[in-house]
TrEMBL record:
It comes from Luteimonas endophytica. Belongs to the DinB family. SUPFAM superfamilies: DinB/YfiT-like putative metalloenzymes. Gene3D superfamilies: dinb family like domain (1.20.120.450). This is DinB family protein. Keywords: Metal-binding. InterPro entries: DinB, DinB/YfiT-like. The keyword Metal-binding applies.
Length: 189
């Protein structure tokens, strides 16, 4: 699989998982979503807000780079988070709407990237103002990995609240190869 195909797959997985996560979260009452459960960002709602905040921060870094893809201009209509624990939306429905818009942007942008864009360095400042420069592909993998990390926290919080997320593995989106799978086939990983 090429790096461009991998980025597109991760963007699709990101959207698929977020859609499922928000549907699961919507089964809980608002008070349960906002209840502090001792997670890094307190509640389910706080953690979901953090995921959107981090994506917006990273996407704005990519948008500020010389030669940024025109699709990233859509960020101008999005909130500008000031801190990693910012609560951009205190209602799940509004947060879900923003999440869907950002996921659509990520997926469209990821599908438009070529190898040159992935190999290009991105120079940015972190939230503390320290300057860095890293290859775009690695930073995109960080963005997707960060999503997976905190979605794992939310799935645990949902499970503790009695909500089953079901399958969360990237494996669910991978095409089945022609060769027979090893083992008895009862567990794909």
């Amino acid at each position: 699989m090429s790096r461009t195909d991998h980025v597109a797959l991760m963007a699709r997985y990101n959207r698929w998982m977020n859609e499922r996560l928000y549907r699961a979260a919507a089964t809980l009452p608002t008070a349960e979503l906002a209840r502090d459960r001792g997670a890094f960002f307190g509640s389910i709602l706080g953690t979901l807000n953090h995921l959107l905040v981090a994506d917006l921060i990273w996407l704005r870094r990519f948008a500020a780079a010389p030669g940024a893809h025109p699709l990233l201009a859509q960020l101008e209509a999005m909130p500008v988070p000031r801190t990693l624990d910012a609560v951009l939306f205190d209602r799940l429905d509004a947060l879900a709407d923003a999440r869907a818009r950002v996921d659509a942007l990520i997926e469209a942008w990821a599908g438009a990237l070529d190898e040159a864009a992935l190999a290009a360095p991105l120079r940015y400042r972190n939230t503390a103002g320290k300057a860095f420069g890293r290859e775009a592909f690695g930073l995109l993998m960080h963005l997707f990995n960060h999503q997976t990390h905190h979605r794992g926290q939310v799935t645990t919080l949902l499970s503790q609240a009695g909500v089953d997320m079901g399958v969360t593995d990237l494996l669910a989106l991978l095409p089945v190869a022609d060769a027979p799978a090893a083992g008895d086939g009862t567990h794909p990983h």
